[in-house]
Amino acid sequence: MNDRYAVILAAGQGKRMKSNLYKVLHPVCGKPMVEHVADQVERAGLSEAVTVIGHGADAVKELLGTRVSYAFQEEQLGTGHAVMQAENILGGKQGVTVVLCGDTPLIRAETIQALMSHHESTGASASILTAKAEDPTGYGRIIRDDNGHVTSIVEHKDAKMDEREIKEINTGTYCFDNQELFSALRKVGNENAQGEYYLPDVIGILKKEGKTVTAWQTPDFSETIGVNDRVALSAAEIALRHRINEHWMRQGVTIIDPDHTYISADSVIGTDTTLHPGVTLTGSVEIGSECVIGPYTEITDSKIDDQSQVRQSVISSSTVGKQVKIGPFAHIRPESVLADDVKIGNFVEVKKSSFDKGSKASHLSYIGDAEVGQEVNMGCGSITVNYDGKDKFLTRIEDGAFVGCNANLIAPVTVGKGAYVAAGSTITDDIPSQSLSIARARQTNKEDYMSNK
Ligand code: UD1
Ligand code: MG
Hints:
The chain is of the alpha/beta class. It has nine helices and 39 strands.
């Protein structure tokens, strides 16, 4: 087998996006486009990937890290010029190079591999991944001769009226013999509508030199959507959402309304879990089996174990055990850990706190920077007072403690094992285990006060 390399083009600004964010960094299903492409290149098992960066170079580097190497394109003079920047790294090598655009987030590793196999089996100098587009506007068109052989690619802006009728488009993914690629690139000029050095011109150049050029057409146009503006961004989002949702439904997940369920590419969901409309899973979310995730729940970078139920709530960077009940309208903020059988009810906010097995905060509470033991009951309106305006302090509530309604626990403070906090108390000192603590003013009744007014 030949050595296989990849070049990912990601240096353009993306003027048509009309955005302060560089194009390839726009997210699709929660992940920047160029990261989708890099993920698939990695899955395809190529020996080396070079990303060409320019606009937003630092941000792209930060995103992709050391997974790829980088070539810098100082001025964006076109896709052909962009690939030339990788010559320092790849130029001397023998093998096959796949070139991909950082703005085609739906491309799949399987398709990259199919294109490479086709390329290698035909012994071609270049192979183009093409697709049939219902509306090919904006894409380069594949020009074939009377025998159906590819002769060149014509950009939309340079195409004549009859060429614009062609529905077969250049997807922007190609396979080249590495040496032929760089030698043909040196011959590419910029006499065209955009004054740019076009990578697709390499096809016509190789063909004229008598080299074999082939095309491999993918049956799924949506996989090759090139995102140049917000309209295409939305089309890519919808297509990827359907792909992801369909995958999970086939794995045994019930999705009540797949048009309105938003699952990131890096989420994993167990069988017999049900997702209700409006559920949004962002980043890396892991949900176990037989869970019910209720309408409009947002979960980010969190793990939820089997048979848990979440209704209309927000959960970020946290871990949730088995058979936990959350919501409606609860907010589980980062670094929270809820053990099995915990209940966090309506209008409860939990921040950087742990709840051990079976503990409950059923209504209207704020629990921040707290370690809550097992089988603890946090009464309605109970609050950990964790912040003095400058620093944060820890509250410890030990196993079996009962915290009455509207209690303030002023941290740092410990409520001992099995202790009982009377409703309305403001606790400033540690409570020994098994004690009752009452810390509130006594009630005074002034009889007939109102009638004598
Ligand atoms: C390109 C193809 C077109 C194809 C389409 C598929 C060319 C000339 N045209 O058009 O045939 O149908 O993709 O989506 O290649 N880039 C650089 N440096 C540059 C210019 C571009 O790195 O100087 C990068 C961009 O960041 C982008 C990719 O190359 O990720 C493609 O560039 P773009 O401007 O989107 O080309 P299209 O007009 O979409
Ligand atoms: Mg594009």
